[in-house]
Input
Amino acid sequence: MFQWLAYFYCWLIRFIIPVAAVTVIYLLYKILIGGKRENPIFARLIDQNGKIFPITARENIIGRGRHCDIVVKSKEASTNAAAIILENDGWTLHPVGDVLLNEEKIDRPQPIAHGDTISVASAELTLDDSRDPYIPYDKNDQLNSVRAKCATIVLTMLQIMVVLSLTIHYLSTDNFPIQLPICFGGLIMVEWIYLKIMKFENVGIELCAFFLCTFGLAVAASAMPDSLYKQFIAMMLGLVVFVLLNFVLKNLSLTMKLRYAIGVIGVGLLFFNILFGTELNGAKNWIDLGFITVQPSEFVKIAYVFAGCASLNRLITTRNLVLFTCFSGACLLPLFIMRDFGTASVFFIGMLIIVFMRSGDLKAIILFIGAAVVGGVAIIALKPYVANRFATYLHAWENAYTSGYQQVNTMIAIGSGGLFGVGGGKGNLDLVAAADTDLVFGFVVEEWGLIIGLCCVAVLILFTLYAIKRAGMTRSVYYSIAAAATSGMFLFQAALNIFGSTDLLPLTGVTLPLISNGGSSIMASMGMLAFIKAAGLGGDVE
Amino acid sequence: MKQMSLRSMFLLLFTIAFSIGLFALCYLSFTNGDDWTSFPANRHIYKNGTLVSAGDITDRDGIVLATTEEGKRIYNPDFYTRISTLHAIGDFKGFIKTGLSTSHWDTLTGYNRVTGLFSAKSGGNNIELTLSAKVNTVALKALGNYSGAVGVYNYKTGEVLCMVSSPTYDPTKEGKGDKGIYINRFLSSSYPPGSTFKLVTAIAALETLDDAETRKYVCDHGTTVEGETISCMSKHGEMTLREALAKSCNAYFSQLAIDLGADTLQKYTDNLGLNSAAEIDGIKAKSGRIDLSNIRKVDLGWAGMGQYTDLVNPLGYLTVMGAIANEGKAVKPYLIESVTSSNGIKFGSSSIDYTSQLFSKTTANKLKEMMRYTVSSTYGDHRFPGLNVCAKTGTAEVDEGITPHSWFVGFNMNDDHPLAFVVIAENAGAGVGVARTVANKTLQAAKDLF
Output
């Protein structure tokens, strides 16, 4: 009787779990991407003809260029004439091109006040700093917290179904891991406590994280139940890093002050890794702390974004990217020495995004990509064994039992899972090395189906769409750049992981953010999410 | 800030590129998912490269030919049942490509693209065949030590009652790797048809020549074409189509083929499907090959009686026999009677499927009568007790110094036992010998099924 019920349950929930997951993704899409949330008007600039230019951001550029926030239509005006920035103590005018403040030429940032006139070519713009009444809770926000509540309820149901599915599997093997209900129970509890504290307001990113963590735990529970505690603790520590980082990021001036220190710590950590690292699975990117091994490069990703992004006043005053390029080089070099090419390429993509977001310079991007190609060719020419790593690429099936074993088994797993999966714990991919990390997409698809696999990837796509949507509305360009870099790095990492394990790209061995088993990866990825969340910070008063 | 909005389009390009990759992966998993899943390294359904998680295969009487017990795939315990049905059900390691265990692994395991291998865990699906293990055993025993193939089907319903290929082997023992044991000769071979091809020439003549039945040719121990001799076993003298078929006169058919012309004969062989790969339950058979392009006259004469470079596939030939028996329109042969899920739900049942009208009803009935006459006048009805056989023998020359292949093809003209058959015994000599005996034994066994 129990067996029959169990079979029926497994048969039934295979179809319910994807429905629940798609529902959660839809709600998250509505919360993060849907709806138009416009920033309030902080101030206005009024020209001599009475035309009003509303200022809806904290960092604004005045100039002739079409990209400017306040466009002065005059041939004499500079492309970027000046930046007008709201800092803690009020508005500041940063001269970039030809600009006069109250008819006087300025060469340094000057605080400006109500009634001051900024002259750019023939336009005379007078500042009116009376801000619109702040509406803390608009209709869309209200709707979003209802959506968040619904999403949480559906997600919890989904989590319970996942646990039951795994439980049924383990009961049939007489080897039930007690960690399973404890960790999932813990996740559900922490999730509700956190969301309650946040009053379900602006929690889209966190919900995304909890969604991914659910399948991260499901993978760990199936592949290596003994690692569940570790995984769960890493998630919780990651949440702590997320909250702390969020707290720091809210304070832009503190963030700016910490940038250099964090950058140095990051680079230092990588060099420390080279000196004292241990080799695991072909790359020397681990540090053995005796009781636990950590992967510093995962944490350096946070430091890299944190230190690599810049706010507007820095962007327009120091336009060159020399320092940033050196910093990127200092991060990439140790990764190459450690032969962690997967992570190195993730950093490289982060670098490209940051460079483009900072400079808008396509030529620089082409230059960097060119340099990377030359560098890659040089490495292969100097050290031919590096190329051997990629020899299997596009030939996985011909080497099905040797070098293509992992890719072939991933594809077998994807085929076997179909759209709805064979059920929690019932997959066979766990018998292949790195199944729960490098091959985790196949793992998820085999046990939970392609629909769930795509839902997990959809979350990562939501991150980039969110970063794009918020890019023009953040409190500072720093947040726009950081969110773009983070979500782009996540997506690229997902591409390497998913397409690498299915032989559409070379297999490099990077993790799928928040799903792959691995404490460092989970913790760092949770932390990284703070950058995406910070893009949600509007221009509102603190 | 507007600048950031513009520049973030870079990220959008990125997202689009990623989505395209994702789409490609989904597309691949949809189109190649079955190949991925059926790879022998898949532990869901294979164990050491042997298919284990699959449903039962039973014959028409419910005799279990293959099943899984305690994670092991096993065959029927009876030796002859095992080896005579082996090529139909296939081995579990996939050596016999046309065997159902390989070609229909998805049906057996319950795989499909939507639900993956979920139902493989509960035993997959059972396949009930139209084959009779009993008839197969008789056919294989009758073939004895000869290599070859026997196929018998009900030309009214399409059920294949017997499909045997020899040499075969005992799958429960480690195979000795004898030459060709993994080939199902009924599906994956093509042979020179020898005199059985005279039926095809006759079809072309009856279809295109108004005087086909009255037209006469002279046989003088053969005939001479452009200075070369096409020999015949005896001096038949002047004769009609009916007599020539009964006596299997080479001279008659070579002259007839030359008068028909290469184009006409080619057209009819193509129409009959002899130049394309036949299919049975989605399993592709080997295509025959009759290529009469740029042919010399004398070779056309040889081709018209089944020599030259002519090759036919037994399954394709069986369908032609079905068409003659069934007024020019054959019922397509099939092997799978039904598919039943492990919890007893029947979801795949066969239905009668016809070929197009391959030739006219008149032609079919005239030829049927001539084949009947051939048996009654030449081979003797006493050799087929209880049957009303219409048939043609064939003795297909292979190489000089090698005994020719022995053919016997035709059908039983009787509505109670509508059986069409093809028998080929390699290097067994005259068709009237071994192949005829095998055909009779098999038909007698098949008759008992009704």
